[in-house]
Amino acid sequence: MEDKNIVLEVEHLKTSFFYGKKEGKAVDDISFKVKKGEILGIVGESGSGKSVTAMSVMKLLGNTKGRVVGGSINFMGRDLLAVSDKEMRQIRGKHIAMVFQEPMTSLNPVLTVGEQIAETIVVHEKVSKKEALARAKELLDTVQIPLAEKRLGEYPHELSGGMRQRVMIAMGLCCNPDLIIADEPTTALDVTIQMQILELFKKLREQYELSIILITHDMGVIAEMTDRVMVMYAGCMAEYGDTATILKNPRHPYTKALMKAIPRLDEKQEYLDAIPGVIPSIFNLPEGCRFHPRCRLATERCRKERPDAFTVDGRTVCCFKAFEEVKESL
């Protein structure tokens, strides 16, 4: 029976990029769900496949050499991979909105803030421009931009980074979407403004019962903001489940390594633990477990076989070592 509480369900998603005869597996067999009013975090280093996952859900890979090659994306009972481009344009903005990580490159520099927000409202809501501008002012008030009426007539370059990001959030909210995907929404901001933006997302979630996918590389943000988390590495899922459970007792070596790289105030740390090496190119992926070249616990089996997912303590893990540890504890 279909669970009406689930807004988005992604199953066995595979997205590849093609250059000549080469195929690069940017997202390789990941599955996750987002419930109504829930914040799901997707975390991992740069190159893990987080943004490609978001672009796949939004079907925004059309102008690239990438495409979804497997799996399903079910949004509120609709298979997004089966809908036409015209139908998808109606879904984007109205039902699913995206907040990109660099607002200065996402906003049109030659249009005022008011024009850009109003344009989206007019397209989806079929209202007059005057009504759309009135709604735009309300949205700027909602995202706590001071002197909202004045800001409507300003251009993106006249606003601070924090204000531009709030404008992007306002644009995302303009048609009361069911889901917002926020791709590194605080990356280009200073620490004080980062906290304000994150607090704003929390308030909007409560106010509108929004579902949010929050993409980040910051485990501190994950701990502060999310209900559930998916840890990604080189296009694969490492660990997925309840945030509190995973942060309290991470089972995948990659999750553990990310946790150890976080500075702690309650411990004396002369140096932070670094993860050796770098994420591999999607065109030169290692055999077996993707993480094994950087994993201190890797065995010969890890180098040859890709681990299957298993479930324990309500979370999903893909790791031979973690599976052995669970078996021993039973």
Write the layout of secondary structure elements.
Layout: E1 6-19, E2 22-35, E3 39-43, H1 50-58, E4 66-75, E5 78-79, H2 85-91, E6 96-99, H3 103-106, H4 113-125, H5 129-142, H6 148-152, H7 161-173, E7 179-183, H8 191-208, E8 211-216, H9 219-225, E9 228-233, E10 236-242, H10 243-248, H11 253-260, H12 300-304, E11 310-312, E12 315-317, H13 320-329
Helix pairs in contact: 4-5, 5-7
What does this structure look like?
The protein is α/β, with parallel strands linked by helices. It has a single domain (6-95, 177-329), classed as 3-Layer(aba) Sandwich (Rossmann fold). It is 36% helix and 24% strand. The chain has helices at residues 50-58, 85-91, 103-106, 113-125, 129-142, 148-152, 161-173, 191-208, 219-225, 243-248, 253-260, 300-304, 320-329, and strands at residues 6-19, 22-35, 39-43, 66-75, 78-79, 96-99, 179-183, 211-216, 228-233, 236-242, 310-312, 315-317. Strand 11 (310-312) and strand 12 form a beta hairpin. The relative contact order is 0.14.
Structure, briefly:
By secondary structure, the protein is α/β, with parallel strands linked by helices.
Give the radius of gyration: 21 Å
Class computed from helices, strands and strand pairing: alpha/beta
Widest β-sheet, arrangement of strands: 6-7-8-3-9-10-12-11
Strand content: 15-25%
Largest sheet, if any?
A: 8 strands, mixed
The CATH homologous superfamily name equals: P-loop containing nucleotide triphosphate hydrolases
* Total of helices: 13
Quaternary organisation: single chain
Count of folded domains: 1
Order of helices and strands: EEEHEEHEHHHHHEHEHEEHHHEEH
Arithmetic mean pLDDT: 89
N- to C-terminal separation?
33 Å
> Considering DSSP H and I runs of 4 or more, what fraction of the residues is helical?
25-40%
The number of distinct β-strands equals: 12
CATH class: Alpha Beta
CATH architecture: 3-Layer(aba) Sandwich
Low-confidence stretches: none
